[in-house]
Amino acid sequence: MKKIIDGRKISNAIKEEIKKEVTELKEKTGKIPGLAVVLLGENQASKVYVGSKIRTCEELGIFSEKYHLSEKTTEEELLRLIQTLNKKENIDGILVQLPIPNHISEQKIIDAISYKKDVDGFHPINVGKTLIGDKTGFKSCTPYGIIEMLKRENIEISGKDAVIIGRSNIVGKPMASLLIAESATVQICHSRTKDLAEKTKKADILISAVGKAKFIKKDMIKDGAVVIDVGMNRDENNKLCGDVDFDDVYEKVSRITPVPGGVGLMTVTMLMKNTLLSFKNNRL
Ligand code: GUN
């Protein structure tokens, strides 16, 4: 059996589904979904992510607007832009690329985005809906993409021991909510966790979002584990790599996501899915 979970193949299949639905809805209603992407400053990684989000919109027939603001933008200015976008008829999704400069409160910005247009799934209302299993909320894109990958690869989640490394609001915590909803037994580990390997070795499904190149070695995983690598790091040769030492663990895993070509592609795809969902909820 093939061990590698092909993120490109899965995300292409989902993108085809979205594209088809967008085309059909356009024919039926004359309207198309719209996404506004806000970028502050010149963070190189953020620019790459934003570029990929805009390109994917174009690919799928989704309208997009990019707001590239100076890193000196004030909190007030950004809040005003969000208010404008909240009211804008042709915009279904609003995304402020993180991180934002320190002089602006990230939580204030997230709270200001209408929860009905919060396609990142970061607004407290959507975070809460995800936790209580209310399917009308937006799910955070990376964890949503991971669940979608597991399901499309027919990987059993129910009753499995899942260990997540990382407790961020973007990945770790929403990942736990979604895995609980799928009836996994979930443990979240983080930088203060003691005996980390003791915990990860018990995982049927191990999800790593630590941001340390090749941190997960074979002596940290269970035989036959499913390993999901959310890391996006550079190795000693400046080559893109994940949190997992792929070559080291490969023989021991049952399934594994590569970096690049794994989870990363799913994140943007699920953002498109959320934008389409917002359009259907609010404008049809
Ligand atoms: N920065 C890193 N990941 C993300 C994401 O999923 N959404 C936004 N808005 N910013 C991010």
Automatic annotation (TrEMBL):
Protein role: Catalyzes the oxidation of 5,10-methylenetetrahydrofolate to 5,10-methenyltetrahydrofolate and then the hydrolysis of 5,10-methenyltetrahydrofolate to 10-formyltetrahydrofolate.
Pathway entry: One-carbon metabolism; tetrahydrofolate interconversion
Example of a GO MF term: methylenetetrahydrofolate dehydrogenase (NADP+) activity
Cellular component per GO, a single term: cytosol
Name the record gives this protein: Bifunctional protein FolD
Protein keywords: Amino-acid biosynthesis, Histidine biosynthesis, Hydrolase, Methionine biosynthesis, Multifunctional enzyme, NADP, One-carbon metabolism, Oxidoreductase, Purine biosynthesis
Organism whose genome encodes this protein: Hypnocyclicus thermotrophus
EC number: 1.5.1.5, 3.5.4.9
